[in-house]
């Protein structure tokens, strides 16, 4: 089954207001009404509303994404942001389980699962990020780590909700390091993930879920990665901060 490519820009803790607005405006202009690739951008929290307004005013097909949220609907959770607040400012897509949240902030699989379930319930699209650390890759555990994170992350997710799920395979050792999985290694991991989705759900679900690759994707390596059978686009960090690089990556996904 043909899957529509999906490219996300995860801006992480980068860009201040003027830079965020400038990058978003440039992407809006260059993507215009082209919907051949689904595109999402995930600014830092303080600029979600202003970037969201910019996308909305331009009637841009670019989706507004959030890098994080808390799963409770409201209440005494100092410092946290709810899904309804995100929806209020136009967020359509949320990242869950990013390696920096797992390994720097210390989020557990149980918390990640709570977040996945809450975001699906809220009607948002979820990009569930998984991936192995270097020592796990070297020990031949890539597929097992992905499988564990997917099984725990998707626990309780019903077949009908899988339409709202994208998986991002982001090997931890490739994130922000300039090291990229070879297209063959990335394809092998993606194939393993799709096989697991067949086992957890069925072939039709596995065939329609998009699996993005993330980890030092650049304009120069995007085409070869995206040409692999099970790679349906990318989740981009550093290269999403520059209009030309990000646009070239989107074009490579077409
Ligand atoms: P880089 O593209 O900077 O390696 O980051 C990837 C990533 O973590 C996207 O979520």
CATH secondary-structure class:
Alpha Beta
The structural domain count equals: 1
The fold-level CATH name is TIM Barrel
Strand content: 15-25%
* Largest sheet: number of strands, sense, barrel closure: 8 strands, parallel
The CA-CA distance between the termini, in Å, is 16 Å
State the order of secondary-structure elements, H for helix, E for strand: EHEHEHEHHEHHEHHEHEH
CATH superfamily: Aldolase class I
Bound molecules: 1,3-dihydroxyacetonephosphate
CATH-defined architecture? Alpha-Beta Barrel
Shape, principal axes of CA atoms: globular
Low-confidence stretches: none
Helix content: 40-55%
What value does the Rg take, in angstroms?
17 Å
Class by SSE composition:
alpha/beta
Quickly count the helices. Answer: 11
* Biggest sheet strand line-up: 7-6-5-4-3-2-1-8
Overall pLDDT confidence: 97
Strand segment tally? 8
Description:
The protein is built from 11 helices and 8 strands. It has helices spanning 17-31, 48-57, 83-88, 99-105, 109-121, 134-138, 142-153, 183-200, 203-208, 219-226, 243-253, and strands at residues 6-10, 38-42, 63-66, 91-96, 125-130, 165-169, 210-213, 233-236. The protein has a single domain (6-253), classed as TIM Barrel, CATH 3.20.20. The model has no long low-confidence stretch (mean pLDDT 97). An 8-stranded parallel β-sheet has the order 7-6-5-4-3-2-1-8. The longest helix is centred in the last third of the chain and has 18 residues, at 183-200. It starts with 5 loop residues before the first strand and ends with a helix. It is α/β, with parallel strands linked by helices. Strand 1 (6-10), helix 1 (17-31) and strand 2 (38-42) form a beta-alpha-beta unit. The radius of gyration is 17 Å and the shape is globular. Helices cover 44% and strands 15% of the residues. The site of 1,3-dihydroxyacetonephosphate has 14 residues, from strand 8.
């Amino acid at each position: 089954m043909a899957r529509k490519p999906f490219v996300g820009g995860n801006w992480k803790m980068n860009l201040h207001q003027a830079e965020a607005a400038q990058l978003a405006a440039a992407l809006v202009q260059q993507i215009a009404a082209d919907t051949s690739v689904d595109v999402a951008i995930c600014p830092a929290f303080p600029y979600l509303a202003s970037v969201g307004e910019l996308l909305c005013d331009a009637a841009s097909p670019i989706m507004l994404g959030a890098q994080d949220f808390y799963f409770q609907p409201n209440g005494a959770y100092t410092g946290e942001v709810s899904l309804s607040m995100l929806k209020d400012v136009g967020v359509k897509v949320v990242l869950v389980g990013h390696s920096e949240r797992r390994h720097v902030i210390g989020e557990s699989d149980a918390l990640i699962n709570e977040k996945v379930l809450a975001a699906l319930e809220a009607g948002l699209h979820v990009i569930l990020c998984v991936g192995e650390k270097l020592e796990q890759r070297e020990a031949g555990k890539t597929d097992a780590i992905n499988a564990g994170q997917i099984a725990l992350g998707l626990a309780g997710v019903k077949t009908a909700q899988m339409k709202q799920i994208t998986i991002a395979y982001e090997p931890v050792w490739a994130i922000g390091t300039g090291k990229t999985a070879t297209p063959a290694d990335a394809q092998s991991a993606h194939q393993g993930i799709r096989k697991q989705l067949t086992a957890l759900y069925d072939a039709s679900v596995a065939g329609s879920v998009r699996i993005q690759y993330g980890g030092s994707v650049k304009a120069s390596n995007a085409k070869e990665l995206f040409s692999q059978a099970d790679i349906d686009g990318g989740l981009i960090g550093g290269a999403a901060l520059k209009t030309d690089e990000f646009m070239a990556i989107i074009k490579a996904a077409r």
